[in-house]
Every structure is written in C-alpha cells, then in structure tokens.
Prior knowledge:
By secondary structure, chain A is of the alpha/beta class.
Amino acid sequence: MTELFAIGLGLSSYNTAGDVLETFYPTPLLGPDAAIGGAFLGGGADAADEPRDGVANVTPAHAASVAARLRDAGAENVAATAARLAEADRPLTLTLLHRDRPIAHTAEAYLKLHLLSHRLTLPNSLDLEGLFAHLPTVAWTSAGPIDATELPDRLLDARLRGERLQVDALDKFPIMANYVMPAGVRIANTARVRLGAYLGDGTTVMHEGQVNFNSGALGPNMVEGRISQGVILGAHTDLGGGASTMGTLSGGGKEVVSLGERCLVGANGGTGIPLGDRCTIEAGLYITAGTIVRLIDADGRPGERAKARELAGQSDLLFIRHSASGEIQCRTNRSAIELNETLHKHN
Amino acid sequence: MTELFAIGLGLSSYNTAGDVLETFYPTPLLGPDAAIGGAFLGGGADAADEPRDGVANVTPAHAASVAARLRDAGAENVAATAARLAEADRPLTLTLLHRDRPIAHTAEAYLKLHLLSHRLTLPNSLDLEGLFAHLPTVAWTSAGPIDATELPDRLLDARLRGERLQVDALDKFPIMANYVMPAGVRIANTARVRLGAYLGDGTTVMHEGQVNFNSGALGPNMVEGRISQGVILGAHTDLGGGASTMGTLSGGGKEVVSLGERCLVGANGGTGIPLGDRCTIEAGLYITAGTIVRLIDADGRPGERAKARELAGQSDLLFIRHSASGEIQCRTNRSAIELNETLHKHN
Amino acid sequence: MTELFAIGLGLSSYNTAGDVLETFYPTPLLGPDAAIGGAFLGGGADAADEPRDGVANVTPAHAASVAARLRDAGAENVAATAARLAEADRPLTLTLLHRDRPIAHTAEAYLKLHLLSHRLTLPNSLDLEGLFAHLPTVAWTSAGPIDATELPDRLLDARLRGERLQVDALDKFPIMANYVMPAGVRIANTARVRLGAYLGDGTTVMHEGQVNFNSGALGPNMVEGRISQGVILGAHTDLGGGASTMGTLSGGGKEVVSLGERCLVGANGGTGIPLGDRCTIEAGLYITAGTIVRLIDADGRPGERAKARELAGQSDLLFIRHSASGEIQCRTNRSAIELNETLHKHN
C-alpha cells in the first residue's frame, strides 16, 4: 500500500444537523510506516488495497480490531489509544490523508491542528488552504461545543432547567489545552493558546502571552507577549509582557515574522520584521518594516540609515530609541564596513 | 395606552436575602408598538389602563397568556420566547420602562445592558444614571451568580461535597456571551466582553480585544485592543493588538473618544482623542489630547504645531513619531493652507 | 508551648500517587496566640508539648475537637471553620509553622500563598525559598486539579463518557478567587490574579490587569496593567491599561520595583524603577533603569541628565517623552538646585 501522510482516529461533536463541529484525536500520526498505516484499515468493509482519502465514520468495533493490529505491529502506545476509543458508545471519526493537500473537511482541519500542537510538524509546514472555510464558528461552552446558531436556544434551555451554560469563546478555533497538552509546558491562561499552536519543551506562556494556530515557540521560551499566526520563536527567545509580533493576517505585510534564538522583545515592544539570533528590542519600542533606523557600529560610530526591513533576519542587533535624541538606532557588534555591506546587500 | 420605551420578560437570580443579582431577558424589546406592549399586561391583577413602570414578578401562567396575546398580535418571535418562559418553575421578572429615565432597580439595569448587546440601541444613547449603584458585585461562578459576600461559605461548601466551585469574575458586569450572542460575531475570549457591549455584524474580538459596557464596534471590525466605556468604532476600523482607547471613567479627560470608519490604531498604540475617518496611528504610538503634533501637509511640507485635541474628529490623518527626529507628526492629504485652517478653527 | 508562626487547617487534593497537588485553607492564621495555637493540638496522638513543625494529616474528628477548644478560647470565627471542616468525609491537612523558614512541602507553600491573599502579611515579607520546587505543575480543570502528567488520560476518559473536561490553566499557581476573595475587591477576569496576590480593600482589577503571587496593591487602586512578582502599589496608585511593571524573575534587574501612593503609569507605559509618591509616567512611555532622563525643574529650566535608576524612589516626578524633540524628560516640582542634589546623592 502507498505511504500515508497522516492518520487520526478520534471523537467528533456534531450540531443538530449532523455536521461535524470539532474532532478530538488523542494520538494523531504523521507519516506512519506501512504496517501502522495498514492497521487502521482492513478487517471489514473498509478493506481495500488503496485506502480512501479523507474522513469516514467507523464503529468502535473497528477501533478494537485496529488496536489488535497495531499491537501486532508493535505500536503499543497508539494501540492503547485505539483500545480506549473502542469503548465509545457512538461512531468514531477516522481521518486518513495520503498527502498534504488543501483541507476539505472539518475533521481534516482538526487533524492538521493536532499535528502542530502534538509537535509532529512545525508551523508553516502544512498546507492550510481551506482551513477557515472548513472550521465552523463554534460556541465553546461548559456543556461542550455548540453550533453558534443554536446557542440562544441552548442558553434559554439551560436557564429554564435552573442550570448555567457558560460560553468561553465563539470562535473557529478551540483552546489547545482541551485537546493536547505537550510535555514540559506551562500555560497560565489556556484561553490564550489556540489549537494548532506549537509549544516546545520548556515553554511557559504567562497570562499576557498568546499563541495563535500555526505559530509557536520551539522551546525553551518565556512567552508574555503575542505570537501571531505564522510566527516562530527560536530557543531561549523571550517575548516580554504585551510584546507584539506583527502578523500577516491583519495589518502586517507579507513577510512572515520569525525570531531566532536568544532574542528578547521587551515589554510592550514589538517587531514587524524577522530577527536573527541574539537580537534585542528595548521595552516599549515597536519596529515595523518601514521604520528608519540609524546604524551604530561596534565602536559606537553612527553609520548610515536603513529601513528596518533591510535588516530582516540579521543577528546580534540591539534596537533602541535614543532617550535624548528620539532617534531609533540599531547597535551591532560589527564594524562600520560590515554594517554598510549589510545595508546594501538588499539594494 | 401610552407608548412604552422598553420591555423585558426574563429570569432573575437572587441572593439569600432575596435581592436580584442579575436578570436574563431572551428577547428584550425597544419601543414596541401598542399591540405588542399591551400583550405583556392584562388578563390578571396587572390589568390597568396605565401599566406600572419598573420591575414586577409575574407567574409563568402570566407568561403563557402573554404568549397567546403576542401571537394574536402577530409577534411570533417574541411570543415563542414568552411561551418558553411559561415553562419556568418559578416567578419571572417583567420589566417595563415607560421612558428612558435613571436606573432604579437591578433588573432595569440589566434590561438596558441587554438593549445595547442586542443592538437595539447605540452606546451613549441610554440614560445610565444609577447603573453602578444598582448593579451588585456578583461572584460569577460555575454554579451561577453568587452574592460576593456569600462566596467564602459557598467555596467551603463545595469543597466539603468534593465539588469544585470556579469563580470566573467578581464584577458588577457579567460576560455578554452568557446572555446575548449577536449574529455574525466572533469572540476569542468571552471573558473580555461585558454585557452592554455593542458588537455589529462582522466583528471579531481577538484574545487581546476587550469591550466594555456602553461601548462597541458598529461592524465589521477587527478588535485586538481595548474599547473603553463610551467609545464607538466605525465600520472597517481596526484596533491592533493591545491598542488603547482612553476612557472617561479613569485617567482620560471628559471628551468621549470615538473612531470613524476605516481607521487603524496600530498594535500597542493608543488614542486619547476622537478620530474621523481613514485615520491611522502607527504601532506603538500613543496620542493624548495634550500631545503636541507637527502638521505635515500633502506635499510633505512641515506646518505649524498643534495640540492633538485641536485635531479631534478630523479625517485622513496619519500620526507617527518620526524615527530620526523623535518628533510626533501628523501627515494629511491636505494642503498647508487647509491645515492652518484646521488648526485655527478651534482657537 | 512556643509561639507559632502560622497555622492552616484545610483540604488537599492529591494525584494518583498520593502527592498533594494543592491545599485550601478557609481561615489561615498568622501569629496566633498560645490559646488558639494550642487548640489545634492535643486531644489525641498529636498531643505533645512541642507540636511538630510542618504538614500532617488529621481526622475530621480531630477538627471537631479543635473547634470545641477554639470556641472555649473565644475564637468563634476560626472555630466555625473548624466545625465545618469536621464534616469532611476524608482526612484534613493541618500545617503548623513554628517560624518563617524555607518551604519544605506543597501544603506549606499553599499556606504562605493564603497568608498573602488573606492580607495577613505583605508581599516580600515571607521566606519563599523552595516555593517553585514544592509547587507541582497542575492542570486546573472543571473537574478540579489534576496532575499535569495524568491530563491526557483524563481528557480521553471524559470524552468517552460524553463529558467535557475544560482545562483553565497548566500552572504551578492557582487562581486566587477560587481560594480567597478579600472584601472590597473586584476582579473582572479572575484568571489573571494568582493565589498569593495581595489585594487591598477598594482595589479593582480590570480585564487587562494582572497580579502575580507575592505582589499586590495596598488599596484602593485601579489595576488595568500588570503587577509583576514582588511589586507593590501604594494607595490610590493606578496602573493604566496594559501598563507594565518590570519584574525580577525575567528581564528586569535585581532592584524590586514598587510604586508609592497616588502614582499613575499611563496606558501601555511601564516602569523598571521604583517610584515614590505622586509620580506619573505618560501613556506609552517605558522607563527602564538605564533610560537617560533630562531633568526639568519647577520653573521649566532644563537641568542635567540622569539615569532613571538614580531617580528611583523619588516623589513628585512626571516622566514624558517630549513630543517635539523626542527627549525623555523628568519634570518635578523642585528647583534646579534640589534636582542636582537628587541627581548626585547616589554618585
């Protein structure tokens, strides 16, 4: 059989019309070997040499046979999850993707978001075309996911029964921590980390931290600011309280921002350009692509001016706004000659 | 019978002393016609030519007769809600306001907050005198609203029963989404939008967005910053991540800030003055009423300096802090002559 | 018997291995007199002249006898709590600390955090050595505290039962409001105030406010910004929306920031230095210890320049970044001579 791109076996929620609202995959798989991939098929109506591509309902009994085959294939961990899912009292969702292609179903969207949060693949590595179109807006409530259009009736129903329905979000994306909790991570307020975030080992997201889907921190990191969609933080890079990384979805330009290793964006600062390694932006300073920056070399000599976008991806930069002149400066540990080369290499 | 200003039929919560903590009105009405207004009266002890003004308890049976009369009046939607409320096993709250006057009861305060969030009236259009005095501080918990003074006992009670009482807020205002969810709106973290917020169709409030009561966005808008009490955003105006609008309750001046259409306040920026249409404040820049701004005309020529408050409500302005000189500048698409007129017209 | 430093009688949660995850003390005591301290001992196996120091399990029956002895000692309030705890159907946690020493047990850590949030002692007054080591990372969920490592199984279990487990935080610290709700305080979003915060009477923490453990506001205060660990706000001092106080745990220096009375840090501003009384930092300006500041005296005459850290703790300062020159200035109500003395007294 052909190789598979990804597999997920899980549980879905539905609205009253029977449409999938969300899917939970306890142990999603990326690029499983043939033996493991094959274990999810066969043994029944689904048994074809070439598995169908996409989303299917399967019975808990099918999950039990999947578990047996996975155990035979030596995949104990995945087998254990399948065995647990076989305890379900309703149909399961089996999603198979032969290759990474545009998203065509809600359950496919959720599989890709799980792959990211399970750290099986990095942000910006998946084909997310069709993501928004296939994610319904869901009321995430204390009674589980509810179709947004069904919410008013449910609020009234709950009240009449003397119960309380609490609505945590009305959003296309759920909270990551209700689906995946990667090891070695702390999140002070889970409401601020969407499913699809990638949080590496040793990452702490404080109360003011925020991580969008398809973005993240490779770990270890201290995240007290906002990681916009598509943005990745390298190891030991910290975002200060309220610090901003400019996204491409709204307001920002087309170049995706990333930060290398051992960078610091100070509290209430921000960046609209990618940074290399060991860069610092002082607290309260926002650098956008169009910011004019005076270059200061390693000996403190002022050099030319450059647009910040010309410095994109460079390492060992310190951005400040001079407290006496008000000039935005970029100090480096390079000589004036190197600085000029940096400045002109994009011209 | 006289015309009514507003009507709400709903369910209240009470503290142990029997005081109303909050009221939920599924379908509040503003300026109902005489037939609909009359349907809420009559048929019982309340039947007088002139209905009493304010808050009353009514029986579920009364709600059933209200539903019948509303159906006769052709108000199917409101009738359906009344019919559902007739299923209640406890008294209902009927709030009638003949005219917009200062708030005299908790249930009246909640009716006005509902009118705003149901988009029946705009922020700054209601008489909110007495609002704070009539809103008790409530512990909003997983077990529903609890009087703040009764919370310690309830926390211990829950623990002794092996249960968990979760306290989401201790506030005079509840979360809007637990009462009203206007169509076409997404809210990534409902904890940040109070009942009494007005969110127009097509508005997205991201995790860092915040909307106070009696404030809002006419829609469509992207709200990633804070909309203070009294502030209104026009269509297609965006607040960047962490952007601030200065309120009048604390810190700000007396002039209520508003933003026209197609404005952008950049991430971590802010405004203490009202803006007209198509204005931009760059990321990280905070304009207060007293900020001295250099005017730059359409040809790039520097003109006079002005206090930002002199530019209040003007359109087509771009505010930046110059990255070389540190000067705060306001660039417009007008000529120097027009600029001077703008500057001096408030003198 | 010797005097005790602190006593707490409460209820703990445990992971499946039997380790304490957290402890709730409804009425913790600091420096109880001998009669009250003695009431917690005696009457059983624990009865020794010198009580053991640290954490012990006691029976509900022991709590009943404690309640009786407390009533005899005239401590009605504490007695009432002990009597309620005697209703428990499982062992209680009794924590006794003879003196303030490094933390050696999870239940000791929780006792100290309770002391702070019950306003029995001020931030920076307790020995918190060992705090992080003895606080396990807990998944704070709708089903109560769960060991972080046990969370994946619990998420799947809940789904299989058709229930929904909601994870609010994965953190060493719980939300204060689920343990203590000090009188006269409002918190718009409890997720942002950790147990161990000190909130004085009359303090309002708005949605954007955040208060770490071992930090706080003496009250009354309006907190719309972030109070970092170790930072204390004096009476009538306000933190504007998104305002930052630099902490010592990450990014900041070694000097603990504090703010005196009647200060204001404007929206999106911040401070890395301690402030005296009646100081203001304008909206959007971040002062760090190394910021060079031009001193302007009471007559508007520019004086020398100083590093902001030289002004640490001074009163009656107004920090702005000049809107024309971009220079950061500190205006005072003092003469130039006094200013120079201030400047040089730390040299």
